[in-house]
Write a structure and sequence with these properties.
Elements lengths: L1 E9 L1 E2 L18 H12 L8 H4 L5 E7 L5 E9 L16 E10 L2 E8 L2 H12 L16 E10 L1 E4 L5 E3 L3 E2 L3 E4 L7 E10 L5 E10 L5 E5 L1 E4 L5 E2 L9
Antiparallel strand pairs: 1-6, 1-7, 2-5, 3-6, 4-5, 8-15, 9-14, 10-13, 11-14, 12-13, 15-16
InterPro entries: CRISPR-assoc_prot_Cas5, CRISPR-assoc_prot_Cas5_HALMA, CRISPR-assoc_prot_Cas5_N
Protein name: Type I-B CRISPR-associated protein Cas5
Keywords: Antiviral defense
Amino acid sequence: MNVLVFDIRADFGHFRKIYSTSSPLTYSIIPPTSFFGILGAIIGLGKEENEYLRYVNHETVNMAIRIMSPVRKMRMGLNHVNTKGNIWVPKQRREGARTQIRTEFLRFPHFRCYVHVKEQSLFHQLIDYVQQHRSVYTVCMGLSECIADVHYVSLEEFRLVNNNAETVSIVSVIPEKYVTSLCIESGKEYRKERFAFQIDEERIVSDYEEVLFEASGEAIRAVVSHYWENKAGERIVFLYDHRKE
């Protein structure tokens, strides 16, 4: 399968966890549903009525994500101001319709993305924009204030390897459902987070999955049901199981 490889990095990132409310926490990696928005921003798919989800979704796009710098998080207060009239005005505050929310951010997030798009015209458009270091809309890491930079790495062929018993090193994050057994190594920090995996144009989530990763970006040694490998021996696991492509 032909795969576009590019890096995305920023000074800050925030991908709000679905269960955090008054003090937003962030996921450690780019959620798949947010990744669809990043692809839409690069090639210029509109957000009106979630148009981009019609073209880039779990059925049309496959992706793998590799952590390139250790996951670091910090918290700081964001000053929120009511800009929609005087609908909300705190009664106990002299300063008016504003409040400060303590928010968790990723610090210096840096990921390597492996992408394949079924629709060839869209895929070639994406390759062209990434190679030229261009995007139609500003690319960000979750929030519009977290502007991101995208750099082309390569266009490579990856081959599918079905695997039932061999322990291999996987450089990307791994959906837990593909892991048969995990080889725990000293000095590594293993984490698991639960993400929305499938979302429709009405932004209704129909599937959630748990994803394993090593917090410093080291490879994970595991037995997985299948993986994809390039000529250099780099092994990744795509988030979606499109094995027949």
